[in-house]
Target: Purple acid phosphatase
Amino acid sequence: MTIMKPLQRLPHMSCAQLTTRLAFLSLVLFLLFTHDELSCSNNFPYSSKGNNGNDWLILPQHDPHLASLLKVSAFDNSLYDAFHHPYNDYSCQPRKIHLSQGTNVDPDSGVVNMTLSFSLNRTQCGGSHQTPSSSFPTASSSNLHMVVVYGRGIFPDGRIEQRAADSEHSVHFDFTSPVTGELYQSDWIQHVTLPNLIGGSHLYWYRISIVQQQSRHLPQLHLPPSFRPVFLRGSLYKVGETPTYRFRTPPLYHQPTSLALVGDLGQTENSTKTMNRILQAALLDQKMTPIYDNMPPPVTQVLIAGDLSYADGVPERWDSWLELMQPLLQTLPLSSVPGNHEIECDNITHNVFVPYETQFRNPNRIADPDMEAPSDTYIDTLWHRMCNTPSQFLGHYNFGNAFYQYQHGMVHIIALNSYTSILPGSIQYNWLAQVALPSVNRDDTPWLLVMFHCPLYTTFLGHNDEINPTLMKSSIEDLLKKHRVNMVISGHDHAYLRTHPLNHDKIDSTGQSPMYWTLGAGGNREQHTKGYIYETPEVWVAKRDNDEYGYGHFFAKNKTHAHLHWVRDGTSSEIVRDAVWIENNYFVNNSTN
Model:
């Protein structure tokens, strides 16, 4: 028989001791229930350590969402699995992620800055209560903090660097659509610098986190002083986090360089096919050492020659285009020029190029943008008062993302704006003639490419009699030959064209004039050009095509030779139809193409 012992009497405690023990028990229970609540909502708190008042985050070392995007087709849903999955987990998810080169690679130190851009939804990230003119919610308002964690290598298990973004990186825009008449307020758009990366096509990883500082208060408990700081100090909780993404830094000046070039992408099924072809050329899992002598290294940059999203005054289309292109642009840095579909006049203010200028950060920005809206009289002459289809544009857009120059490996790239004046004496002309072209060092960057939207030469119907490219041709063609520009890249014509070296409508037998490469068959909804001006190609046409979509691949093997090929989307015939080796007209007297 078991004899029950009487309950032992609790030791005598003062009221203060009893209060302390009860408070401690309440604290334990609170932490247990809080942990369960956070576990169910996937909002696990970060570890944090105070360091002069700052909280430094310790992130997980492995990310289950890290996966290759190279082994799937353009229409396999797995291409977007890692892209969409975290949207269901967090309330403030970074979206519309894209990269760009920030600076040139420093020739002495070999370091380069990159720019990482992404958007945060105003409502989901606690900014809906603010007026359109307000800045990004700061720690004093919503307690949100942006953290970009990145490092060198394939997997995030090496040295972790952290950079906290603040309100100076945040921009937004308001736009009244000329199509719907409705006011659109953009997301909070972040442009964050990743400084001091090692150039030379090195692989880097990064992850974006949005964290919120929260304080836990238990007013019903009379906590001893030793417990109060636990609650009053607060903790950092994830409210948004991306998977781990990867990219390569620009090559050094002496290294072989591969670029993808395309125009008039849009957002159609064909656009995603082109996107996937370019993504395959990035080959992040491939080593930079070629398997055979003439094999190009992985593409490390994509250049878009205007007409990116075909938003045409409906800014929501910019949102859908950036999300559609994110699997490519989160990996491959982008540079672009404005096309006619980027003009977009605000229905009230008539301000132009606003979504394009705000969404992107092209390399080596010269100055803040200088824009002038066209007059009401001019807009009244346009079809449906739409600014996106002019033969001649009577406003201006200088600096900002309009025109700029930068170096990428062995290539010097000058980007121009077809839709601002480039007549002698204009701001853009003076910059091109007095600053950009004279600054090119062909010892560092032997290949010189110039990119703008409207081609100076065309064999296609549709844009062959427009005023803007006609004026541009008369203004800059002599400059292009004088400085031995190797190639001029354009879009606008929804087709493919490669010319022989041309000077004033004639083949330059010395090869010292530029070749013109039109790559406007990216996949947009307007489909291909109407046809050819002449059924028999002009004598200066090396190759033309207006019935398939694709992109151009430029591979600078060394300072004297480069390879061009057009990679088509179709699978009914060979993927590469046009391919040619060219000689550098700066170093070689005669061209072999």
Observations:
- Residues 259-583 form a domain with the Purple Acid Phosphatase; chain A, domain 2 fold (CATH 3.60.21.10).
- The longest helix spans residues 15-41.
- The first strand starts at residue 47 and ends at 51.
- The mean pLDDT is 79.
